[in-house]
Amino acid sequence: MRKMIYIFYRIVVFLVVLKIAFYFAEPFVFYHPVSKMEGTPGQFQLKFTEKQLVTQDGSKISSWWIPSDSTDAPVILFCHGNAGNMSHRLSNVAALHNMGWSVIIFDYHGFGTSEGRPSETRLYSDAKAVYEELISKGIPTEKIIWFGRSLGGAVASYGAEHFPSAGLILESTFTSAEGMAKYLYWPFPVQWLVWTKFPTLDRIRRIQLPLLILHGDQDSMIPIRMGKELFEASASSSKSFHKVKGGEHNTTFSLGGTDYWNAFQNFMNGLKK
User: Fold this and answer.
1) Distant-in-sequence, close-in-space partners of 53: CB < 8 Å, separation ≥ 6
2) Which of 55, 160, 66, 143 is nearest to 104 (CA)?
């Protein structure tokens, strides 16, 4: 009996140590920031303003504001994925702007020239600072559309749940950090190690804003079934799902073609009704 208790005790201690170790290792699993900037919107002949925004913990994060020529244009609040920095999304930003929309994009803590280190709560804080920057510019809340790609969809969902806005667009987004752990490491019960939540599926059940979800049917990083789960769980009475045929995780934007942009435009048109 003593031997059994001793073995049980050793197992519990091992699991606790493993859980604590993963707490410190987790940022290196979830975030892959790059400091070096590869360009600015000026390379695409876009007029822009670069500004350092102060977050709740006092850190400064970088942002680019690329306004449309029309003062009545919708504003895309762009939350990018977990790797690189905002300069790696320039072609995407230019395409959105070419549709006639204003765009603001930013780098999370520790990405690009932004200060600090990334974490789930800090990413939410970053999104809040960007939203407040738009409000300070006098942008009406009914013009602000949250747009998140990949991990950025979890951040955008947080923003859509907590701050008045017009709509939410999710592209190649996962259901939760736990869901991703189960998918990537399915033979092992690693989900109990995960500290980070990013509970997009739970949030989407409470968000009633108009919703557009886009997902590539060949996405091996975040499977399209997760996008469909989010769509089915959504509380929105005005929602649409667009499948990008042949689209992988990072090619939906480049492969989507006319149908991809029509999905965006139809969504925007629906907001005016």
Assistant:
1) 60, 61, 62, 63, 106, 129, 130, 133
2) 66
Let me know if 219 is a catalytic residue: yes
Q: Which domains does the chain have, with CATH numbers?
A: 2-271 (3.40.50.1820)
242 is catalytic: no
125, 219, 234, 242: the catalytic one is: 219
249 is catalytic: yes
Q: Could you say which of 109, 215, 242, 249 is catalytic?
A: 249
- Looking at every residue in the chain, the average pLDDT score rounds to 90
Number of helical (H) and strand (E) elements in the chain, helices listed first: 9, 10
d(CA 24, CA 15): 15
Nearest in space to 193 (alpha carbons), one of 17, 46, 44: 17
pTM above 0.70, yes or no: yes
DSSP string, 59-93: -EEEEEEE--S-TT--EEEEE--SEE-GGGGHHHH
Strands 211-216 and 167-171: parallel
In tens, the pLDDT along 127-171 reads: 999 999 999 999 999 999 999 999 999 999 999 999 999 999 999
Residue with tokens 């749940």: 161
What was the pLDDT predicted at 9?
Answer: 54
Q: So what's the pLDDT on residue 183? A: 81
Maximal C-alpha separation, the chain: 77
Question: H or E segment at 151?
Answer: helix 151-162
Q: What's the full length of the chain, in residues?
A: 273
62, 102, 150, 165: which is the annotated catalytic residue?
A: 150
Are the C-beta atoms of residues 143 and 75 closer than 8 Å to each other?
yes
